[in-house]
Write a structure and sequence with these properties.
CATH class of the largest domain: Alpha Beta
Strand content: 15-25%
Oligomer: single chain
Radius of gyration: 23 Å
Strand order of the largest sheet: 2-1-3-4-5-6
Shape: globular
CATH superfamily of the largest domain: Methylthiotransferase, N-terminal domain
Largest sheet: 6 strands, parallel
Number of strands: 19
Bound molecules: S-adenosyl-L-homocysteine, iron/sulfur cluster, FE3-S4 cluster
Helix content: 25-40%
Number of helices: 14
Number of domains: 4
């Protein structure tokens, strides 16, 4: 697992994490160990990747990462606010940390709840010393210096910065797939969504900087990269090169050593034929597009301010289905948006039938602070939202069973990422982002690409054997 630590590892004074892990776990709860940090992350892949960069910033300042909050000198909590439950979790976790400050431990709140609640966090949890949103992470070294100097209420809450968060070193968690943020923030204004408030305006990263990082991760042995952005396909290269998103995809795939390129999340409005053309031209671009619909009803889409109709969304699907190879399509759906009628729900259910998604992520609408939909009438009762969610999930289960049954007997290339505790059992992802659990008599398969023949299925995964 040496690859878990990458860019600039050699320059670290800290030892590798497994040793730290052991010492942290072995140590009884007690006074803070200066120069150590514990970092817990909730939320989306962008948050996960931000944490990898935050850990990199800390490690390049000489901090060691530990796996337990017990005695960590610095406890950081990278938070999510997308639905109410996620945000509530933050305050209950902070409650657990109440006694930590007295033991000399410093507590910081990062991410979307930090940005959303700002200095109010100090009122609700006075034992917190640092509150910093993602748009201020470029200032982290400066903010950390203030925290180290004993400052009690350090904040990074500006979102009017045009800086993207780039680091000299990133401490990557996933040893097989390297995440790279190419665009931060969001300029869309979906009426239910906190992200434009919590992550600030859209800022695209320079194409040459992205390509430089791709080269670095390829040299470290990563063969799969995933480009990230809340609206990744709204990428607008700020350099004079003015690379289109589709051109950037091709340039990333051209870097020596790169074998798979993924990107997420695409906004339907900015999804163009150029992207499909690039996928047709370059097989290293994975057979998968995540294209959140949110609803199948044009009336609800309008209330959500999604900027497309059902028909326009279906045109984008037709564009993807027109590719020369089968591309798997996944989506996000919200049920129970204020005023959603039975007829609207029926349209969402029929969208599932029309598109036959490979997977869906469905959520019950959750009212969020600052958002326009907060003041909309006709809230749907919680039990009714649950009923609608169950209907959607049942329909999708049937669709996936049918799709998966069609894969039996087919062979897929899998990047092996997990060794099961059961002997000879492994799992990994196909290019179309399906999980296959499979058996193989070979050993040392982790990180390798192998051909797997599908022999069975469940609604959520495939079962197979090494071909
Ligand atoms: N930028 C991405 C999505 C980011 S949030 C996009 O535009 O597609 C991930 C998903 O959370 C969204 O696609 C949406 O389905 C869901 N979501 C966002 N706000 C929500 C809310 N207030 N209630 C319930 N689900 C929400
Ligand atoms: Fe939220 Fe819409 Fe932006 Fe996605 S595109 S992050 S749903 S505002
Ligand atoms: Fe959550 Fe923020 Fe991501 S609200 S989903 S962590 S952008």
């Amino acid at each position: 697992m040496g690859k878990t630590f990458d860019i600039g590892l050699e320059s670290l004074t800290a030892g590798p994490l497994p040793a730290n892990r052991r010492s942290a776990l072995a140590m009884p709860s007690g006074p803070a160990v200066r120069g150590t940090f514990f970092l817990e992350t909730f939320g989306c892949q962008m948050n996960d990747h931000d944490s990898e960069k935050v850990a990199g910033v800390l490690m390049s300042r000489g901090y060691r990462q530990v796996e337990s909050a017990d005695t960590a000198g610095l406890i950081l909590y990278n938070t999510c606010s997308i639905r109410e439950k996620a945000a509530q979790k933050v305050f209950s976790r902070l409650g657990e940390y109440r006694t930590k400050q007295a033991q000399g431990q410093v507590i910081g709140v990062l991410g979307c709840v930090a940005q959303q609640e700002g200095e109010d966090i100090f009122e609700r949890a006075p034992w917190v010393s640092l509150v910093c949103g993602s748009a201020s992470y470029s200032k982290l070294p400066e903010l950390l210096a203030q925290v180290e100097a004993g400052n009690q209420r350090v904040t990074g809450l500006e979102t009017d910065t045009d800086a993207t968060f780039e680091t000299e070193m990133t401490r990557r968690d996933n040893p097989w797939r390297a995440y790279l943020t190419i665009i931060e923030g969001c300029d869309k204004a979906c009426s239910y969504c906190v992200v434009p408030y919590t992550r600030g305006p859209e800022r695209s990263r320079a194409s040459n900087s992205i390509l430089r990082e791709v080269r670095q991760v390829a040299e470290l042995g990563y063969s799969e990269v995933q480009l990230l952005g809340q609206t990744v396909n709204s990428y607008a290269d700020p350099t004079s090169r003015k690379m289109r998103f589709s051109e950037l995809l091709l340039a990333v795939a051209d870097e020596p050593g790169i074998r798979r390129v993924r990107f997420t999340t695409s906004h339907p409005k900015d999804f163009t034929q150029h992207i499909v053309d690039a996928m047709d031209a370059q097989p290293k671009l994975c057979n998968h597009v995540h294209l959140p619909a949110q609803s199948g009803s044009t009336r609800v889409l309008r209330a959500m301010q999604r900027t497309y109709t059902r028909e326009e969304y279906l045109e984008k699907i037709a564009m993807i289905r027109g590719a020369r190879r089968p591309i798997s399509i996944t989506t996000d759906i919200i049920v129970g948006f204020p005023g959603e009628t039975e007829a609207d729900l029926a349209e969402t259910l029929s969208l599932l039938d029309d598109v036959k998604y490979d997977a869906i992520f469905a959520f019950k609408y959750s009212p969020r602070p600052h958002t326009p939909s907060l003041s909309m009438n006709d809230a749907i009762p919680e039990e009714e939202k649950s009923r609608r969610l169950a209907l959607l999930q049942e329909k999708q289960r049937e669709i996936q069973m049918e799709r998966h049954a069609g894969f039996i007997g087919m062979a897929f290339e899998v990047l092996v990422s997990t060794k099961s505790r059961k002997e000879n059992h492994w799992s990994g992802h196909t290019t179309c982002h399906r999980v296959i659990n499979f058996t193989s008599q070979e050993t040392a398969l982790l990180g390798k690409y192998v051909q797997v023949r599908v022999t069975g299925m469940t609604p959520n995964s495939l079962v197979g054997e090494h071909a």
